[in-house]
Amino acid sequence: METNNKHIDLEYLKQIANGSDEFILQMITVFTEEIPGEVENLQNHLKNKDWNALKATAHKMKPSYSFMGVKELEDMVHSVEEFGGSESHMNELPGLIASIHSITNEVIAELQEEKKKFQ
Questions:
Q1: Is the pTM of this model over 0.85?
Q2: How far is Cα of residue 110 from the mean position of the Cα atoms in its chain?
């Protein structure tokens, strides 16, 4: 199947969906509705220097990126979780979170296109 997605790889999602387009649609919908708010939470926790909340939010986000096959964001969110938890690499956090925000927007656009194939 020809795909021009830059970030997502839905193979894992398709595997666990076991042929259910409805499940895939539901997962994509949940991701596109909830992840932008979580990214905003990361930004707020960083601004407020709430490292425990930053770590917890990042931890909660990892499976969402895994389901959508966004390995680069999975890795970035893992770093945010680690840095927040250890209160280290503080100078890297703003750039990491900005990248997560930017790439997540691209991922959501890709998923909106992908959704049309399952409707």
A1: yes
A2: 13
